[in-house]
Amino acid sequence: MMEIWKSISSHTTEYENPIRLSKGEIVQLGELAPEEDWKDWIWAENDNQQGGWVPIQLIETLDDNKRGLILEDYSAKELNISKDELFEKIRSMNGWSWVRKIDNNDEGWVPNETIEINA
Protein backbone atom coordinates (compact mmCIF):
# COMPACT_ATOMS: atom_id res chain seq x y z
CA MET A 1 0.00 0.00 0.00
CA MET A 2 1.26 3.46 -0.92
CA GLU A 3 2.14 5.82 1.94
CA ILE A 4 0.76 9.32 1.52
CA TRP A 5 2.88 12.28 2.65
CA LYS A 6 1.71 15.85 3.28
CA SER A 7 3.59 19.13 2.99
CA ILE A 8 3.83 20.99 6.28
CA SER A 9 5.31 24.10 4.70
CA SER A 10 5.79 25.58 1.26
CA HIS A 11 8.91 25.29 -0.89
CA THR A 12 9.91 27.29 -3.98
CA THR A 13 12.76 26.24 -6.21
CA GLU A 14 15.71 28.54 -6.83
CA TYR A 15 16.50 26.83 -10.13
CA GLU A 16 14.09 27.37 -13.03
CA ASN A 17 16.11 25.23 -15.48
CA PRO A 18 17.22 22.14 -13.55
CA ILE A 19 20.03 20.00 -14.87
CA ARG A 20 19.10 16.64 -16.42
CA LEU A 21 21.79 13.99 -16.75
CA SER A 22 21.86 10.62 -18.47
CA LYS A 23 23.48 7.42 -17.25
CA GLY A 24 27.02 7.28 -18.63
CA GLU A 25 27.36 11.06 -19.05
CA ILE A 26 30.63 12.66 -17.90
CA VAL A 27 30.32 15.86 -15.82
CA GLN A 28 32.70 18.42 -14.36
CA LEU A 29 32.54 18.37 -10.56
CA GLY A 30 32.52 21.45 -8.35
CA GLU A 31 32.21 21.96 -4.63
CA LEU A 32 30.27 19.92 -2.10
CA ALA A 33 27.27 21.76 -0.67
CA PRO A 34 28.37 23.68 2.44
CA GLU A 35 25.08 23.36 4.33
CA GLU A 36 24.80 20.48 6.80
CA ASP A 37 21.29 19.72 5.51
CA TRP A 38 22.77 19.33 2.01
CA LYS A 39 25.57 16.99 3.04
CA ASP A 40 26.58 14.69 0.16
CA TRP A 41 25.30 16.92 -2.67
CA ILE A 42 27.88 18.11 -5.21
CA TRP A 43 27.69 20.76 -7.94
CA ALA A 44 28.05 19.19 -11.41
CA GLU A 45 28.12 20.73 -14.89
CA ASN A 46 27.55 18.97 -18.18
CA ASP A 47 29.02 19.76 -21.63
CA ASN A 48 26.22 22.30 -22.23
CA GLN A 49 27.52 24.34 -19.26
CA GLN A 50 24.32 23.57 -17.39
CA GLY A 51 24.90 23.01 -13.69
CA GLY A 52 23.03 21.64 -10.70
CA TRP A 53 23.22 19.79 -7.41
CA VAL A 54 23.57 16.00 -7.66
CA PRO A 55 23.68 13.38 -4.87
CA ILE A 56 27.25 12.05 -4.70
CA GLN A 57 25.86 8.51 -4.56
CA LEU A 58 24.90 8.88 -8.25
CA ILE A 59 28.44 9.79 -9.40
CA GLU A 60 31.58 7.71 -9.83
CA THR A 61 34.45 10.18 -9.43
CA LEU A 62 37.25 10.30 -12.00
CA ASP A 63 40.46 12.31 -12.47
CA ASP A 64 41.23 13.40 -8.90
CA ASN A 65 37.55 14.19 -8.28
CA LYS A 66 37.40 16.83 -11.05
CA ARG A 67 35.10 14.80 -13.31
CA GLY A 68 32.40 12.23 -12.64
CA LEU A 69 30.52 9.46 -14.42
CA ILE A 70 26.73 9.60 -13.93
CA LEU A 71 25.53 6.18 -12.71
CA GLU A 72 21.79 6.59 -13.50
CA ASP A 73 19.46 9.03 -15.23
CA TYR A 74 18.95 12.06 -12.98
CA SER A 75 16.94 15.27 -12.83
CA ALA A 76 17.55 18.10 -10.35
CA LYS A 77 13.94 19.28 -10.75
CA GLU A 78 12.52 20.66 -7.51
CA LEU A 79 8.79 20.98 -6.93
CA ASN A 80 7.14 24.21 -5.92
CA ILE A 81 4.76 23.15 -3.18
CA SER A 82 2.21 24.73 -0.90
CA LYS A 83 1.28 23.69 2.61
CA ASP A 84 -1.09 20.68 2.87
CA GLU A 85 -0.39 19.19 -0.58
CA LEU A 86 -0.34 15.37 -0.73
CA PHE A 87 2.48 13.25 -2.19
CA GLU A 88 3.79 9.76 -2.73
CA LYS A 89 7.46 9.55 -1.69
CA ILE A 90 9.46 7.70 -4.33
CA ARG A 91 13.03 8.11 -3.08
CA SER A 92 14.86 9.87 -0.28
CA MET A 93 18.51 10.96 -0.40
CA ASN A 94 20.65 13.35 1.64
CA GLY A 95 17.82 15.30 3.30
CA TRP A 96 15.62 15.53 0.18
CA SER A 97 12.89 13.31 -1.29
CA TRP A 98 11.77 12.72 -4.87
CA VAL A 99 7.97 12.81 -4.66
CA ARG A 100 4.92 12.60 -6.92
CA LYS A 101 1.99 14.96 -6.29
CA ILE A 102 -1.27 13.06 -5.78
CA ASP A 103 -3.43 15.67 -7.54
CA ASN A 104 -1.50 15.95 -10.84
CA ASN A 105 1.34 13.36 -10.82
CA ASP A 106 4.01 16.10 -11.09
CA GLU A 107 7.36 14.81 -9.77
CA GLY A 108 10.43 16.45 -8.28
CA TRP A 109 12.65 16.99 -5.24
CA VAL A 110 11.43 18.59 -1.99
CA PRO A 111 13.35 19.11 1.27
CA ASN A 112 12.47 16.45 3.86
CA GLU A 113 11.75 19.13 6.48
CA THR A 114 8.77 20.29 4.36
CA ILE A 115 6.90 16.95 4.41
CA GLU A 116 5.58 14.44 6.92
CA ILE A 117 3.63 11.19 6.77
CA ASN A 118 -0.10 11.93 6.42
CA ALA A 119 -1.69 10.42 9.51
From TrEMBL:
<dbReference type="Pfam" id="PF07653">
    <property type="entry name" value="SH3_2"/>
</dbReference>
<keyword id="KW-0728">SH3 domain</keyword>
<feature type="domain" description="SH3">
    <location>
        <begin position="9"/>
        <end position="60"/>
    </location>
</feature>
<dbReference type="InterPro" id="IPR014593">
    <property type="entry name" value="UCP034961_SH3_2"/>
</dbReference>
<dbReference type="InterPro" id="IPR001452">
    <property type="entry name" value="SH3_domain"/>
</dbReference>
<dbReference type="InterPro" id="IPR036028">
    <property type="entry name" value="SH3-like_dom_sf"/>
</dbReference>
<protein>
    <submittedName>
        <fullName>SH3 domain-containing protein</fullName>
    </submittedName>
</protein>
